[in-house]
Amino acid sequence: MRRTRIALTRVALVATFLTAFTALAPSPAHAATTPRARMYQVTNNSRVSNGVREVGIHYTISKLARKHSIAMANRGSIFHTTNPSSFYLKGVKWSTWGENVGVTGGTITGMQSAFMNSPGHRSNILNRGFHRVAVGTYRDANGFLWVTVFFYG
Q1: How far apart are CA 85 and CA 92, in angstroms?
Q2: Theoretical Cys-Cys bridge with 69: which of 6, 30, 79, 138, CB 3.0 to 4.6 Å?
Q3: Which residues contact 138 (CB under 8 A, 6 or more apart)?
Q4: Which residues does residue 2 pair with via DSSP β-bridges, in sequence order?
Q5: In the chain, % of residues over pLDDT 70
Q6: Residue 31 — very low, low, confident or very high, per pLDDT cuts 50/70/90?
Q7: What's the distance, Cα to Cα, between the start and end of the chain in Å?
Q8: Where does residue 75 rank: exposed (0-12), middle (13-18), buried (19+ CB within 10 A)?
Q9: Segment 109-115 mean pLDDT
Q10: From residue 104, how far is each of 48, 112, 141, 145 by CA, in Å?
Q11: Residue 3 belongs to some domain of the structure
């Protein structure tokens, strides 16, 4: 009986240490840890699974995309940028652009599924002329996630 308790205690201690050290281990480089990173990841996953090259991300323009997501949350409705060439693309070389906006109380994966089931949004995601994206996300006080994905090429 005593040996069983000692053995169980050792197993419990090992499990505790493994759990603690696993939690401290860095996540893989490809793991998306923020809503913005996850949205970027699922966008590229959709492109690759449909035979389209991945897009790069423009972090400076992503800050503007986030501002747009915040503006949508503050207004309580989704809307597109009225003049993207002056809002996003000032000083950036481009010839074509597109924009996906949305809001979800669910997951990024669910949002991407909705985008892929919408012909216009799907067209933006799979457009071979787009080489870069800007991704902005904002979670409001009610837990809704507002998303702006700006594509350009």
Answers
A1: 9
A2: 138
A3: 66, 69, 70, 72, 73, 145, 146
A4: none
A5: 79
A6: low
A7: 71
A8: exposed
A9: 97
A10: 24, 10, 13, 5
A11: no
